[in-house]
Amino acid sequence: MTGKIRAEFGPGGEVAFVDPETLVVEAAALAGVELQTPCGGKGKCGQCRVVTAGDGLTPPDEVEVSSLSEEDLAKGVRLSCRARIVGPTQITIPAGSRITTSTILETGLVDGVPAQPNVRRAELALPKPALGDQRADLRRITAGLGAGLAGCEADLDLLRELPERLRESDFAPVAVTIGNRLVDIRGAGGIPQAYGCAVDIGTTTVVAYVVELESGHVVGTGSAPNPQGAHGADVVSRVEFADQTADGLQTLHEESVGIVNRVIAEACGEADVSPRDVYEVTVVGNTCMAHLFLGLNPHYVARAPYIPVVDQPLRVSAAELGVRVNPRGEVYVLPNVAGWVGADTVGVVLSTRLRESEGPTLAIDIGTNGEVMLWSGERLLVCSTAAGPAFEGAQIRHGMRAAAGAIDHVRATEDGIAFRTIGNQPAVGICGSGLLDAVARMLDLGVINPTGLMVDEAGAAQLPPAIASRIAGKDQDRHFVLATVRESGLDEPIILTQRDVRQLQLAKGAIRAGIEVLLAETGLRPADLERILLAGAFGSYIDRVSAVRIGLVPSLPLAQIIAVGNAAGAGAVMALASTSEREKATQLAEAANHVELSSRPDFQMLFMETMLFQSG
Amino acid sequence: MTGKIRAEFGPGGEVAFVDPETLVVEAAALAGVELQTPCGGKGKCGQCRVVTAGDGLTPPDEVEVSSLSEEDLAKGVRLSCRARIVGPTQITIPAGSRITTSTILETGLVDGVPAQPNVRRAELALPKPALGDQRADLRRITAGLGAGLAGCEADLDLLRELPERLRESDFAPVAVTIGNRLVDIRGAGGIPQAYGCAVDIGTTTVVAYVVELESGHVVGTGSAPNPQGAHGADVVSRVEFADQTADGLQTLHEESVGIVNRVIAEACGEADVSPRDVYEVTVVGNTCMAHLFLGLNPHYVARAPYIPVVDQPLRVSAAELGVRVNPRGEVYVLPNVAGWVGADTVGVVLSTRLRESEGPTLAIDIGTNGEVMLWSGERLLVCSTAAGPAFEGAQIRHGMRAAAGAIDHVRATEDGIAFRTIGNQPAVGICGSGLLDAVARMLDLGVINPTGLMVDEAGAAQLPPAIASRIAGKDQDRHFVLATVRESGLDEPIILTQRDVRQLQLAKGAIRAGIEVLLAETGLRPADLERILLAGAFGSYIDRVSAVRIGLVPSLPLAQIIAVGNAAGAGAVMALASTSEREKATQLAEAANHVELSSRPDFQMLFMETMLFQSG
């Protein structure tokens, strides 16, 4: 670590030790702080401003001088995509320059998207009936709702209550519409706000966001593990459960609706919102999860040629589905692209504005399956890769989910390696991000070579003793000790075996091969990419240096590799808060060119190559 | 009857005795045969052709000579709106010239309206899924259905069965859509035909027509009395029952749905159609009947200012409503115009093409309420008049429904009067058409004067003895004997009292006042009318000479007063068989100018005048 320079970032106090001449934006990334760089670091947009004092940075270059005012320059304002670190420095990052991965938890919307919900609440003051004004009750109400809702319809059960409710309110009711349907009418003050819920049904975790629809703000969240996990960690094993168990599909369906109800209730509880005031629920999830939620048989989704029952967006009565919100509420399931490219991917494309990016941009959502999205500047391509569960810690000797005690970060030290665990608990295993780091460090240290093979006895002998002493075993069980018995919270050391390394190679190879296929489809090279977006929890937690090191993603400057958080869930929130966004999601699903990897003759060849550990 | 000429009409053999120079079309009308006269008897359209032999008619005039070919003229073809009867004659009426009041029972559609049903059945042969064709099941099907249905949706319960049904059919299924919804999919040969039902819910009688949707043909009918009659013959007493009885509304609702199911089952039985193959049901009825059918509270419909819950067309799930057709079928209730101007009136306007008439045309649907529709040539006006139940035989001393034994026709003879009964059974009462005839004859005979007052002793003494001997009693019980004890099937003579005459005056005055108000609104005089259409059973049965004689309808030549049968039911059939007609019905309901008689200061004055018996 000699020769590194300390850079501290305010107001959070994050620190990074960087090489001289490192760009501020990259240093910030190393410190775990994401900066806005809409122009891709070209110094064009001026949105990555930071403020510094002292002489730790290079002097302003011509781009900064032309982009920033003299006043700003005098105050120490700099562009983090231009300024480089040359000495110890403290840098303050204004809120506007910072990307927070939990943005959707606070605002629910990408900046600049106005709330335009499908659910509308209106306080009406209607003229009373008279011989000169004999309009029907419904027409009187819909006329009061304005021109856009003049043809509004209503369910029979509400129509049956309409005359009394209207007169009890003395013709001054509060009305709620969903799209073109009148769904509720109560006396003045009866419905203080109309809410919606956006739900992301992950294979592993289910998350709900409660949104105040008038503002589009997220006001509460809830999350819980998907109880279907008891029938198999991955999608295929759940489909097998549905196929082979009596009432298996029904069981999975009920579990899905049940957990959705639970996270909605939790989110509502956090926001002190009555589920009765929730009128719409938007849902994203992979195609199989969405099918199970709807009670649709995913049998043909999981088997070649991978045919979903439906790919278009679905509107379903919440009551029919058993979703416990307002009984006249609706559930809107976003469209999927294909059997293995689901509404969650559509949500990512929507919320990241992928298709509106200026230059070629790649987005990756890594889970049990890795969905890869490429915007070439002209076309939107998507594919799904069977990464397998290695990134979630499964099928790894000491693998585990990202939970307390999991090794989630491994770094090199002067005399070997050091690790960090989640919650600073005694180490009990290793999660995906830790696995990535560990393999990257093992490559750096020469413990494995680029083919993934662990050094033999002779090779180990040439390594520093602190490293060599960590290597033992034979063949597939040959391993590297991450945590010695003394460091471990278990009765044994925590190790990474040759087999584990191979599992990681398969996983990262699958994803990288998907990336390469999409690039090849468009004639682009990795270096042509202006940006890589990492979606999902895994994408937020992994160390991007390690990801590049093992070749999981193309080698771009770190500032151009950006974690975007739960972008799928953000897409669900946007589709909830804005009908324009909802329509855009449908257009995106239609516009996306799905590349079926299994039908491509070049895929296996690429896969073989991309399993190698090489960055580029 | 001296000086009258005998005219016989083929092929039915109907006979009329007419004055010399009577137009053939009027003679036919007197014989009970309706002829097509689309141009209103101007000799323009040539559609009222008849064929005659011999010299019983005036020679062809210039209009006939220019309108008919020489060949036709040589064959004896004539225009019945031009040729007049001058001597005994036999006239043959081609089928094309005849209007049959049961037309809708045979074809279901006004001539020239192509079937364009909302329900479509399609036999598909779809490409099978492959890695190169990964379309979702629903998209594969909707693509097969063609461009218009590309965005077709499907209910969740069908989607849940879709994958297996599609594969069981080996991707060659039969599909049924309702509008933009896929509602059924079965193996080849699974659905030989798609059917619909048109239902007319009358206050008194409920009728269903089964329609083969591909052709638009009515293939079966069913009818039954409305069981709600047990709670009151008229609409207001049923609304009172709903208001004042525990579960009254629910009882009426269930009775309505029950009777609709019964007539649908009867109609299906007649046509040998499974109700499962019936996918759509269109419904007309007055606003109150439609509300009760839907379970909507008619409380405010029946009370000033007469506000319906809804006036726009309603689509409701058949299953939700309890209508026993295909479980995914739909019920479509046509729009109403106002609280007392219902979907039945819209059906009449639709099927009679009232708004497309060349000149000013009046349509009247007489029941417990009389709906009056006037097309001025520019505007469509409608009103509802409270005729009361006199025309249905209620509140008349010997009044009864049009059933076996009812006196339905009364004519003058040389020595008094003669009557006819339904089914030639012994007379047990008098129905509406008989009442109309009887009063008209009493006017002719001088038994009552134009104010409706029956002659006193002195006046009676001046009448022929055969007539005078039929008059007896005092004040409101003063009466005229229609059937003597000898002629009666009862133990007493069948009489018409002064009070009965007053009831008829109130009924006919209400309707005529409605007609006069609409005429006044448009600045038209009765003589400006080119045609009067009489809808409904009553309109079909009444003697038009009597109707004109008592002033129920304006005095037009008989050929211009046309019975159009169950025009409301015909409208329901048309809306079932053609979406264009359905849209037109909605446009008509929107375009109709409802005139609320009770809000008009001139109505009572007009009513007083129109209660008098005077034709004009």
Short description:
The structure is a homodimer of 616-residue chains. By secondary structure, the first copy, chain A, is an alpha/beta fold.
Short key terms for the protein model shown above:
homodimer; 616 residues; alpha/beta; Ubiquitin-like (UB roll); Nucleotidyltransferase, domain 5; 6-stranded mixed beta sheet; 20 helices; globular
Oligomer: homodimer
- Main beta sheet strand tally, sense and closure of chain A: 6 strands, mixed
SS field, number of helical segments of chain A: 20
Fill in the CATH topology of the largest domain in chain A.
Answer: Nucleotidyltransferase, domain 5
Share of residues in strands of chain A: 15-25%
**Largest sheet, spatial ordering of strands of chain A:** 16-15-14-17-19-18
User: Helicity range of the residues of chain A?
Assistant: 25-40%
The overall pLDDT of chain A, averaged over residues, is: 90
What is the count of β-strands of chain A?
31
Inertia-based shape of chain A: globular
In CATH, what is the class of the largest domain in chain A?
Alpha Beta
Low-confidence stretches of chain A: 99-109
Radius of gyration of chain A: 27 Å
